[in-house]
Amino acid sequence: MAQDFIKELQTQLQPARQRLVEHPLYYRIHSLADLRVFMEYHVFAVWDFMSLLKALQRDLTCTTLPWVPTGNPATRRLINEIVLEEETDLDPEGRATSHFELYLRAMREAGASTAPAERLLAALADGASVPAALAAAQAPAAVQEFVKHTFAVIAAGQPHAVASAFTFGREDVIPDMFRHLVADLGQRFPGQLDTFIYYLNRHIELDEDHHAPLAHQMVRDLCGTDPQRWQQAAEVAQQGMAARVAFWDGIQAALTKEPAAA
What we know:
By secondary structure, this protein is an all-alpha fold.
């Protein structure tokens, strides 16, 4: 039964997914300058993704002391496997790193500014709220709206809804989005984007072959055969995709304002 719900949900989400996968932003990135603008926005989505993931780990596993077995053991294993590879994956040299830290490295290699993201981290470390930290980082409006949506989903406190946002708004659609970006970057900018291409390919590999199937199972486990939960899962997934499209629109608008570059 849950498998049928997943198929129904994927069918329902297909038009929104298609709008995201076919967004014109991917074809607007023509130069290193364009890519730097993209990365300076997108890094905030890489960062807030980890908060979605950690919200799931908090709600579906035991992260407090004393430890007690919490929830479904199969779901615990699913989320912990995803956390392992997102928070402590291996870089091209085989060293442990989070995907966010890997992205910062890719930005520096490409010549993109990491200063706003670093200001965000510094403000959060000083105890600032997420909105205050975004303001301190001087994050663009499109970034602030996207992150605001992510944290609204988290704040609602419904694990099945968070799982749907994570699964269908992020893990399930990321491979198709990233294929557009990775297609010819290596040939056009040899040696300047090695880490970024590694990051993109790693996400395609993990999300398509491993994380997306695990995440689908997590949604099945959390929604079960409850039609109301499945409806909420569909609504949150559609809202997440719409938020991503608006985010991409914001980046595209920023690129339009940039002077042409070789």
